[in-house]
Amino acid sequence: MQSKIALAEIAQPYAEALMSVAQSNNLTEEFGSDIRILLSLLGNSQELRSFFENPFVKLDSKKALVNQIMGEGGNTYLRNFLLLLVDRRRIQILEGICQQYLSLLRQLNQTVLAQVISAVPLSDEQQETVKQKVKAMTNAREVELDTRIDREIIGGVIIKVGSQVVDASIRGQLRRLSLRLSGS
After folding, report:
1. 28 close to 40: Cβ distance less than 8 angstroms
2. CB within 8 A of 168, min separation 6: which ones?
3. Are the C-beta atoms of 166 and 138 separated by less than 8 Å?
4. DSSP class of residue 153?
């Protein structure tokens, strides 16, 4: 199995090529929406990932599935790109290519990705508060949230932006209190 770094290096040129096509046709946001849907499909279906990764599945079968996923109204450029990945036997790294594309799109739009971990789902108002805090921390124009639920943090949130981590969770506060008490 290849390492994540090696996969990222292979995926990067494909993501840059897709971004180039998107920019030249003024479709960066449309591609971004379609790619988020593809990532959701891949994330929710181990069968789909296994199908694309299986070297014994014929290329024609993979192309038929790509055409089925893209549907009649799917973007022709994106469909052709996916079919090219099948032909080049790179469809198994589609998830990495999609993630790289979204990263390039965030750079283009001066958007920061913030991973937010909370004990319970955040309301729209709470998400907006987190976005404002991240904007203040990073001076970004926009903030995209990747929210996850982890009941073990008890309450509060943990916000990760790049290498910065803001731990405002109850578990984190208890850990810091424990360290202070044991250090006394």
Report:
1. no
2. 156, 157, 158, 159
3. no
4. G
Going from the N-terminus, what domains does the chain have, and what CATH number goes with each? Answer: 4-107 (1.10.520.20), 111-183 (no CATH)
pLDDT tops 50 at residue 23: yes
The pLDDT tens digits for 118-147 are 999 999 999 999 999 999 988 889 999 999
125 membership: H or E segment, kind and range: helix 124-138
Query: Model's pTM, two decimal places?
Result: 0.79
Tell me: pLDDT of 182 over 90. Answer: no
Q: Is the pLDDT of residue 60 over 60?
A: yes
Q: Give the integer Cα–Cα distance in Å for 129 and 33.
A: 24
pLDDT band at 93 (very low <50, low <70, confident <90, very high): very high
Place of tokens 């709470």: 126
In the block, residue with structure tokens 């108002």: 125
pLDDT tops 90 at residue 106? yes
Report residue 108 as tokens: 């283009």
Q: Which helix (DSSP H) or strand (DSSP E) does residue 180 occupy?
A: helix 170-183
Within 10 angstroms of residue 91's Cβ, the number of other Cβ atoms is 22
3-state secondary structure of 149: strand
Pairwise CA distance, residues 71 & 73, whole Å: 6
Q: How far apart are CA 56 and CA 22, in angstroms?
A: 32
* Among the listed residues 104, 68, 90, the one whose alpha carbon sits nearest the alpha carbon of residue 2: 90
